[in-house]
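Reviewers of the previous submission asked for a worked example of the structure-prediction workflow described in the proposal, so we include one complete record here. The input consisted solely of the amino acid sequence. No template or homolog information was supplied to the procedure at any stage.
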Amino acid sequence: MHFKTKSYKFITILIVLSLQICSFAPAHKYYFSLTEIKANTFSKTISVSAKLFIDDLESALQKTNNVKFDLSKSTENKAVQNAVFNYMNKHLQIYLDGKIVPLNLVGFEIENEVVWIYLESKLNNKEFKCTKIINSILYDFSADQSNLVQFKWNNKNFTEKLTYPNKELIISQ
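From that input alone, the workflow returned the following structure tokens.
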């Protein structure tokens, strides 16, 4: 009986220490986002899907707004939607032939530890010669941030990895 008590105490101490050590470990060690931009000249629309780690975006929103956010509990909250839209609008711009494309927030959804943010806009022209994408998403959160940008237009695919401080991608069609 005395052996079992010592054994339980040892296991309990081991579990508590393990939990404390894990609580100091970062949630993840990679600072990465994916932004997919699709220009559909048939429907004259442009759609954006951005995938970010939820805790990174929450931290960036808190830093920007001085308010703590829990995105997993507030996908329908208008104030949170506005904060997400304002952040994305500040850190992601698309220019077609030198004219900015005004993006509108469609919404966002949580998938495990990431958040998908959806934006869209109408295209005024079916043809354009130059696309400039500025993507500084989460650069204000971590200098280790990398952003993979995928741009699809008329069955052409362009992919570029942007790392801090590089935030600009220019594509000539």
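The chain has three helices and ten strands. We consider this example representative of the routine output the project will generate in years two and three.
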